[in-house]
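User: Could you check the structure of this?
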Amino acid sequence: MSIKKKNRAEKKNSPHFNAVDALIVILAIIAVVGVYFRYNILDFLSSSRNNEEYVVSFSIENIRYTTPNYINVGDNVYLSSDGELLGVLMSESENQGALNITPASEFFTDSSGKVVEAFYPSENSRVDAKGRMLCEGVYDSEGGFSVSGKTHLAPGQTLSVYTEKVTFSIVITEIEIYEE
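Assistant: Sure, the predicted structure tokens are below.
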């Protein structure tokens, strides 16, 4: 066999990349992107689309009497465990702060026999407080409430949370739909 015929035979046996091969590669890429889109992006969009606003009521026990000075209406509340946004603090009425503290009082009789009412908290005393925050979430099929589809909340649950200025623990007391 001559050298020219041998070169032609080698060219016929070597693989060629043509339009059909390019089409197969493109279809494979589209299939992978489609599967990713279906299982990740659509699930994310549908879970956030079903979110509603809820008011989560909570109590805080045994905090310093000055701590409520650092907790304000409109502050973002984050979970200490992973930094996820839990909600935004709100008040029960327009002229009220983020936390409701009922000062304790006690009656004493002074040296002249006059009854005097002393209010607490006094310096270095500790108080309990109640508050509310606006959260976005959904009730799931098992009856639990999920914030952003991730964190499950239920009455009686204790969570460690923080704002920009202070860290504290809350006990969830009630979850109800937000009505303006």
